[in-house]
């Protein structure tokens, strides 16, 4: 087999693989090949497999400009990712999940990391105006989120990681934070704890309101004292957060059960508690949301309740594709269920 010509030789490079090239290799019509590469829902699995294997063998890459001219579609999903320091490896797990879900489909992922609500809003406005994607995924929603309002007004397909207070339904996948809190409070009651403290951040998010409301109701149902603190600390992984842990240790009376909605914040609060010789499990029973293996590796005796961010990414991509294909928004709203790890 001859080697590909080099630039020095002056010969033309290998021809770009096309639908016709795949058609000739498989013996299928160009229209069948085209249908298979768009998803091939109506084709036999064997036909779809033949086409996709031939496309991979030939190194076929869709001409997105041509696809857009023919169909008005870009075959692109845009993830507009607001920066967050609350969750360990949130972006990595979310992107991996989306990648798993779109593997083998016609869709590609573009990631736009933004810093602050105004920058995120402008990024979405640009996507909608220029139609550079078929749909958008956004994260960390607020109760009356301006990004959601913009996308609904434009009639542009989107899905959110988080809920909002809009009356008009929109697609979302969210962590079932109400169940997270109910499980945590019930566990602390079972362990004989009476004075509870909830540490929760980001007061502007819809999730904050949901968690605090459910926490107060659950504590009242179990006859427990319930206190809430939302520290105004910009960086969870900081000396400030550790100092906040020391302040909790010096409270009088000190809480004997603590719930925290951030794994990263929990690590530094625990360090502050231990600075004041507070023993986990004996003096304070600590429960936090787990999003990685870091915290249970460092504190294997700690009770955690897991949020599967990778699974959330997969679900967000699936919901968005269904929305792009015309499925009604009210059928595309799901919750990720917490997974308990009682170790204490």
Description:
The chain is α/β, with parallel strands linked by helices. The protein is 44% helix and 17% strand. A six-stranded parallel beta sheet has the order 2-1-3-4-5-11, with helices on both faces. It has a six-stranded mixed beta sheet with strand order 7-6-8-9-10-12. The model is unreliable at 1-13 (pLDDT under 50).
Topology:
Layout (H helix, E strand, L loop, with lengths): L18 H8 L3 H8 L7 H14 L5 H8 L4 E7 L7 H13 L5 E7 L2 H14 L4 E5 L6 H9 L3 E4 L10 E4 L1 H14 L4 E5 L6 H17 L2 E5 L9 H11 L7 E4 L2 H13 L9 E6 L3 H5 L4 E4 L2 H16 L8 E4 L2 E3 L3
Quick overview:
With 344 residues, the chain is α/β, with parallel strands linked by helices. The chain contains 13 helices and 12 strands.
For the largest beta-sheet, the strand count, sense and barrel status come to: 6 strands, parallel
| Percentage beta strand | 15-25%
- Name the overall outline: elongated
Which residue ranges are poorly predicted, with pLDDT under 50 across at least 5 consecutive positions?
1-13
- CA radius of gyration is 25 Å
Helices and strands, in N-to-C order?
HHHHEHEHEHEEHEHEHEHEHEHEE
Assembly state here? single chain
Number of strands: 12
List keywords for this structure.
344 residues, 6-stranded parallel sheet, 6-stranded mixed sheet, disordered N terminus
């Amino acid at each position: 087999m001859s080697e590909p010509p080099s630039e020095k030789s002056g010969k033309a490079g290998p021809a770009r693989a096309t639908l016709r090239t795949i058609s000739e290799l498989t013996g299928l019509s160009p229209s069948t090949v085209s249908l298979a590469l768009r998803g091939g829902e109506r084709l036999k699995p064997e036909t779809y497999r033949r086409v996709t294997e031939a496309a991979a063998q030939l190194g076929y890459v869709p001409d997105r400009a041509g696809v857009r001219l023919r169909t008005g579609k870009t075959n692109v999903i845009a993830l507009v990712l607001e920066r967050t320091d609350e969750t360990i490896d949130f972006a990595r797990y979310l992107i991996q999940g989306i990648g798993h879900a779109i593997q083998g489909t016609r869709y590609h992922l573009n990631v736009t990391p933004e810093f602050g609500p105004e920058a995120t809003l402008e990024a979405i406005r640009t996507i909608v105006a220029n139609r550079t994607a078929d749909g958008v995924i956004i994260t960390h929603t607020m109760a009356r989120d301006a990004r959601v309002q913009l996308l609904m007004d434009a009639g542009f397909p989107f899905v959110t990681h988080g809920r909002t207070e809009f009356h008009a339904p929109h697609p979302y996948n969210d962590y079932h934070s109400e169940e997270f809190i109910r499980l945590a409070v019930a566990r602390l009651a079972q362990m004989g704890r009476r004075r509870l403290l909830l540490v929760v951040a980001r007061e502007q998010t819809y999730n904050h309101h949901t968690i605090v409301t459910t926490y107060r109701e659950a504590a009242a149902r179990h006859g427990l004292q319930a206190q809430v603190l939302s520290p105004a600390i910009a960086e969870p992984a900081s000396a400030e957060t550790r100092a906040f842990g020391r302040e909790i240790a010096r409270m009088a009376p000190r809480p004997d059960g603590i719930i925290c909605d951030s794994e990263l914040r929990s690590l530094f609060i625990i360090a502050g508690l231990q600075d004041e010789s507070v023993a986990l499990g004996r003096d304070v029973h600590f429960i936090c949301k787990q999003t990685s293996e870091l915290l249970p590796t460092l504190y294997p005796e700690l009770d955690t309740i897991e949020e599967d961010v990778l699974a959330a990414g997969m679900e967000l991509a699936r919901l968005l594709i269904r929305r792009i294909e015309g499925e009604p928004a009210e059928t595309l709203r799901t919750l990720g269920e917490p997974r308990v790890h009682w170790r204490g």
